[in-house]
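Researcher: Go.
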Amino acid sequence: MSKTSDNAPQPPLPEQQQNIPGKTSEMHPVPDHGEDSYRGSGRLQGKSAVITGGDSGIGRAVAIAFAREGADVLVSYLSEDEDAKQTAEWVEKAGQRCVLMPGDISKADHCRKIIDKAVGEFGKIDILVNNAAHQMTFESLSDIPDEDWEKTFATNIHAMFYLVKAALPHFNEGASIINTASINSDDPNPTLLPYATTKGAIQNFTAGLAQLLADKHVRVNCVAPGPVWTPLIPSTMPPETVANFGKSYPIGRPAQPAELAAPYVMLAADEASYISGATIAVTGGKPLI
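Model: Structure:
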């Protein structure tokens, strides 16, 4: 399906720094989202999906893959209009509809507006991908501002609750919720303490929600990526960390976003009807604890 692994950039990567939330076009090298490699086979034909953080990185790769599998997509994003428009272009090139929805998902009202917009545009929701995240690097506990701790939780975990609660009345039987967790869920990086803590909460939320929604025929799973080359990296990590990003993993490099698309497609497809409460690790050979 993809030749990404044949020519993926290897560390050391160029040292670089961006302002949060980062831009795809300013990354060196520019990430591969599967624009030229992902081939669909109709696995999501006729479905509609909501993807948070769908403007870039994993979210863009998933949006492209979903579209090429036959799904219409609503892309939720914070303020990265240029990146979001590029994602929409790829979705539309695949012959599917793409609705763009900027705004802050840390706010409950905005989460409800996202769901209302998706229902208004598509008439239903078959797939909800809770992917957007905030992270920052801190060398010590005293460096973490209260505001950043609260923002990380509001963006990374509270938003999932708001979105699922709003979407539940609109899910078709067999709907799929896919949450983006992290290897940090099981193996927390101490310099990413707020982020890693929310990722542990996401994995727990996923396991509990899968049981709670089973009688409604809604499946809930999560994907736990290892290092992935997205705008979040140069905008939230120091240049020397960026240069060696992914080097310590068995495969020896970070994943390209395109390499994350397949598990999201699998979990969204009807063929995964008995998979719920699972964590799919995409970690370059490093096992979850």
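Model: Strands lie at 48-52, 72-77, 98-102, 125-130, 171-180, 219-225, 279-282.
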